[in-house]
Amino acid sequence: MRTKMMAATLAAGLALSLTACGGDDDDDKFKIGIKVDQPGLGLKESDGSFSGFDVDMARYIAEGLGHDLDDVEFVEAVSANRETFLENGTVDMILATYSITDERKEKVDFAGPYYVAGQDLLVRADDDSITGPESLDGKTLCSVTGSTSAQRVKDEYSDKVQLQEFDSYSKCVDALLGGQIDALTTDDIILAGFAQQHPGELKVVGSPFSEENYGVGLPKDSEDRDKINDLIEEAFEDGAWEKAFNDNLGDSGYPLPETPPTVDRY
Amino acid sequence: MDVIIEAFPDILQAFWLNIRLALYSGVLALVLGTLLAAFRVSPVPLLRLIGTVWVNTIRNTPLTLVITFMLFGLSYQLGVTFSDTISENVFWLAVVGLGVYTAAFVCEVLRAGINTVDVGQSEAARSLGFTFTQNLRLVILPQAFRAVIAPLGSTFIALIKNTTIAVVIGVTTAEGINESSGLMRTLIEFNGDQTILIFAVFALGFVIITLPIGLLTSWAAKRLGGVR
User: Total domain count for chain A?
Assistant: First the structure.
């Protein structure tokens, strides 16, 4: 009796997983990898829709490539699996605060950059004591596990800073608002997303100390690369880039750079 | 393989951090758990109630919540801090969280052990004029502990693996090296193409730590468990 029931459960489970696979295996969809936990850049809302600067840029590019927006499917791409997703064909392109580096260029292709970010600090709006990475001695600095950005600050700028790591940025933001930590570090545009969520309470310090060129990640030897580069330049010119920024990060107090980056057709 | 060789000193430190968490919280859990078990079998209704509420609340709460509460509730809201140095403060908060959590399991294991002791033993002790505490300390618990060496070993193995949850409040060494699951995440972040190798190394690390404990406690259970 028990074996029969187990077999039935197994069979049911198998059938379910098979249909699930069938549903996902939809080649007509244009799949775009994004972050789903970064407000202002790539965020999955509670109703299942997606919003953010990366998401709006992704939609603009998808439309420009001739895809209907109904055929676009957003897939969560966490930092660690971005190259793998492109190599396996899990996604067709990635806009997920994806920095162009020579190391990554060996595995994937990049269009863009469509934004130049830099490591910066997020502090409470009324805190004037922190002006940059070298003013953190005796303060506490937060970052997420798996990132070396806080360690870099300690090693290169303020060796008396205390580090607190959490498994998510939202915990850092909570502790920052509560006064238990003094600053949060990662790329400035990501920080702007958190400032946008808490207008008037948090501010981006605004003295970036690194340069991250956000690109559109594509599979190696993608045919779409030139076209996407054209589309990015088009977005700079027709105001779509500025609109995507202002719609998502306009209330953050963090200004849009005066000039868009130069697309690198390597 | 290069990534593992390069990170090897860090990996050792990361595992050592897990072991330290497990040792301190294991001692705390053993003491608290024994006390709770005594509460749960005591003749005082209030103590029994405290024991029952503790076990049923903590045992049914996800450990992630317990550990998160330690920092965000106990430390940030209620102001309990062990040290001004963040890495030490979160370490001890994690020890307390793990200890309090594991104590509930130790208590239940021990209570099962107490039930294996023949009721005639405690009746005999009582008729000799032993108080409840004397009875428990001199007659019941020594026999109960011998009966539950193996399940206590399992509880300790679970505790060692549970120490990885300390990552949610960012437990690191003074030099900023994460405990093992956090270090694993960092390594994968920068070596996404070698995910499987990195996973395997960390899994192996835990096997190396926990396997001897299982063997040792099974051996001790056989030697000291007594004839049933």
Answer: 2
**Chain B residue with minimum CA distance to A177:** B76
Cβ atoms < 10 Å from Cβ of A58: 25
**Which of A98, A69, A62, A52 has its CA nearest to residue A228?**
A62
Which fold is adopted by the domain B2-224? MetI-like fold (1.10.3720)
Residues of A in contact with B167 (CB under 8 A): 145, 167
- The CATH number that applies at residue A56 is 3.40.190.10
3-state secondary structure B148-198: CHHHHHHHHHHHHHHHHHHHHHCCECCCCCECHHHHHHHHHHHCHHHHHHH
Q: Report CB contact under 8 Å: B185, A107.
A: no
Amino acid at A85: F
**Cα A255 from Cα B5, distance rounded (Å):** 44
> Which residues, 6 or more positions from A106, have their beta carbon under 8 angstroms from its beta carbon?
none
Measure the CA–CA gap between A4 and A7, rounded to whole angstroms: 5
Reported pTM: 0.82
Quote the ipTM score: 0.77
A109 and A238 fall within a common domain: yes
H helices within B42-148, ranges in order? 45-59, 63-69, 86-116, 119-127, 132-134, 141-147
Q: Which helix (H) or strand (E) holds A108?
A: strand A108-117
Sign of CA dihedral B24, B26, B31, B36: positive
B63 Cβ under 8 Å from any chain A Cβ: no
| Residue A138 lies in domain | 119-204
Mean pLDDT of chain B: 92
Q: Is the domain of A153 the same as that of A166?
A: yes
The answer on A235 and A173 residing in a single domain is: no
Q: Which residues of chain A have pLDDT under 70?
A: 1-27
In this predicted model, what pLDDT tens digit does every residue of B69-93 receive, in sequence order?
Answer: 999 999 998 988 898 888 899 999 9
Q: Is residue B5 over pLDDT 80?
A: yes
- Residue A53 shares a structural domain with residue A101: yes
